[in-house]
From TrEMBL:
Residue ranges, compositional bias (Basic residues): 1-14
Coiled coil: none
Keyword Cytoplasm among UniProt keywords: yes
The name this protein goes by in its record: Probable transcriptional regulatory protein MTR62_19875
MF GO annotations: DNA binding
Chief location: cytoplasm
Domain TACO1/YebC-like second and third, chain residue ranges per copy: 81-242
Keyword Glycosyltransferase assigned: no
UniProt keyword annotations, A-Z: Cytoplasm, DNA-binding, Transcription, Transcription regulation
Compartment(s) where it occurs, according to its Swiss-Prot or TrEMBL record: Cytoplasm
UniProt source species: Novosphingobium organovorum
PANTHER family: TRANSCRIPTIONAL REGULATORY PROTEIN YEBC-RELATED, TRANSLATIONAL ACTIVATOR OF CYTOCHROME C OXIDASE 1
TACO1/YebC-like N-terminal domain: residues covered: 5-75
Amino acid sequence: MAGHSKFKNIMHRKGAQDKKRSAQFSKLSREITVAAKMGMPDPDMNPRLRAAVNAAKAQSMPKDNIQRAIDKASKGDGENYEEVRYEGYGPGGVAIIVEALTDNRNRTATNVRTAFAKNGGNLGASGAVSHGFERLGLIEYPGAVGDEDTVLEAAIEAGADDVESDMGDGDENLGSHQIWVAVDALHEVARELEKVLGEAEGVKLAWRPNLKVDVDEGTAGTLLKLVDTLDDDDDVQTVWGNYEISDEVMEKLA
């Protein structure tokens, strides 16, 4: 789920997410294998693979699982996955981008279209909503690495473009920092930040909305069901949206 910057909202849903750990490991493995196939099987020589491995470590994925996923690529084992992007509108006219890795485009397209149709949305053509987003690099850190000023200073020094911090109402364990950078500067900035803040929770390409839509309680319930349905699909890697859900609405829905 990547619709809004209110990270404490996401924390309300962590319990449900914990049940999905095995599915999450499967998605992380798929990304590692694809990244290793597209470049060198060495994370130090392959920025995308390094980002995938870091994301897996951040989710406490065992080292053996990570190595198996890399080995699968170097041995040429397993399916050939391709990257596919779907765009559409959710309830309330919210713009949604779905990124998938699939070995069967027909299956994935059918599943994504059905998820939209059953949850108040509709799938659009390629380019239907992406014009309302910027393609950027995103580096994520937990709130515990430092306060807003510390992270902002480190980000400026490293060459980042923008920082969004949410300190979880004073509880740094619920807080998060999002550091936004130009796509071609992502891995260089991530390397510089690692020297100061340690290893990031996530380093990836992202879709950042130019404008966000505030969602009311009625729309939010259906919207989150759509996002969860998409997230539950094995082929779907990430769901991005231009929505903002207030803490008050999230608490009512929790």
